[in-house]
Amino acid sequence: MKPAVCAISRGVALSMGILVSFSAHAEIEEARDLMESGHFTEAREALWPAARSGNAEAEELIGVMYALGLGVERDSVRAMEWYLRAAMKGHPGAQSGVGWYYELGIGLPSPDLVRAYMWYALSAIGGDPDAAISLEEVVKKMSEEQIKHAQVLIDDYRVWLYPFR
């Protein structure tokens, strides 16, 4: 391909990416407005395309809907799955949600304090201001060995989720 054609192709691809991103942002804002006005079924429908495309913000909001039973039947297992999808993409709020589910064992066979600590720490690295409080509380329930194990996991995930922090 000639350099000029290649540059135009890259420009078109970049423009399409911006349009898709803007579209997802608009869908999410519409969904937030619908949620605030109590139209949860419509909000989920508005979030669905962005969530199915892997948008972490949309995934986290669908997790909230399942966690609280907003427009869907309350389902802690599905909430955890949606939170986890967003958390693995670096969404700090979803990371705190996953940490809380692990801490309490919600939707899981039992609590897992090591993973709760890990997700709270990652959320704090990502900028969630409430994560530090959650860390302070969960560490009170943990042994030194559990904390060391969590630190190893944090180091493993940090380089992947937050390579520049």
Characteristic terms for this protein:
0% strand; mainly alpha
Describe the SSE topology.
Layout: H1 3-36, H2 40-52, H3 56-68, H4 76-87, H5 92-104, H6 113-126, H7 131-139, H8 144-161
Low-confidence stretches: 9-20
Estimate what percentage of residues fall within beta strands: under 5%
Helix content: over 70%
Rg, Cα atoms, Å: 19 Å
Q: What is the overall shape?
A: globular
Task: Describe this entry's structure for a reader.
Helices cover 76% and strands 0% of the residues. With 165 residues, the chain is an all-alpha fold. The radius of gyration is 19 Å and the shape is globular. It starts with a helix and ends with a helix. The model is unreliable at 9-20 (pLDDT under 50).
Brief write-up:
With 165 residues, the chain is mainly alpha-helical. It is globular. It has helices at 3-36, 40-52, 56-68, 76-87, 92-104, 113-126, 131-139, 144-161.
